[in-house]
Amino acid sequence: MGLYDTYLAVRHRLHEADPPAHVAVVITERDLLEQGAYDTLERFFGWAFGRGAERVTVLVSVLDAAVVETLERELRNVDAPRPIAVRGPGDTERADAPIQVSIGLGGKREFADAVREIAADVAAGDLEPDAIDEDTISERLVFPEEPDLLIKTGAERLSDFAIWQSVYSELYFTDVNWRDFRERDYLRAILDFQNRKRRFGT
């Protein structure tokens, strides 16, 4: 760790605000095709858990459906420090692990699937319409947990991810591409988070 990285680490450690407990990062399939991309991902897990995170979510934007199977296989084999749950476009099973990976499962589709499930429960008489609330929807999402901090690398565009979950998330955009993302970039992100005053819609 260089001098500047040490400076950032000390600022983070001495900060009076807590670090994010749940960190999410949005990357693209192209990012994962770059040499060293999975090494960066493994280091990212280490940075996050080493700096106070309890959960990490990786949201992978996919344009070419043909690469989904390959990405799923590679991501399941990542050397992760905690249990990992990988879900793709056709998966409906809830992801419940310290590390969660979404491959091409867009937020609009995830939300629509949850609404259809609720409608089916109402039609079957298993759920009263008046009983539907925010928790009813969250319980039916594949990725129900809300990130405290959502990092987008490479561009200031969130993509179709975590539409429901990121309502109160702090968003951090960096022009650093995933292949070049370093610990100092992660430290900048969490320091930015610690310097903000979260309002949760108030």
UniProtKB/TrEMBL annotation:
One of its GO terms (molecular function) is ditrans,polycis-polyprenyl diphosphate synthase [(2E,6E)-farnesyl diphosphate specific] activity. The keyword Transferase applies. Keywords: Transferase. It comes from Halopenitus persicus. This is Undecaprenyl diphosphate synthase. PANTHER family: DEHYDRODOLICHYL DIPHOSPHATE SYNTHASE FAMILY MEMBER, UNDECAPRENYL DIPHOSPHATE SYNTHASE. Pfam families: Prenyltransf (PF01255). It comes from the Archaea. GO terms for biological process: polyprenol biosynthetic process. The keyword Signal does not apply. Gene3D superfamilies: Decaprenyl diphosphate synthase-like. InterPro entries: UPP_synth-like (IPR001441), UPP_synth-like_sf (IPR036424).
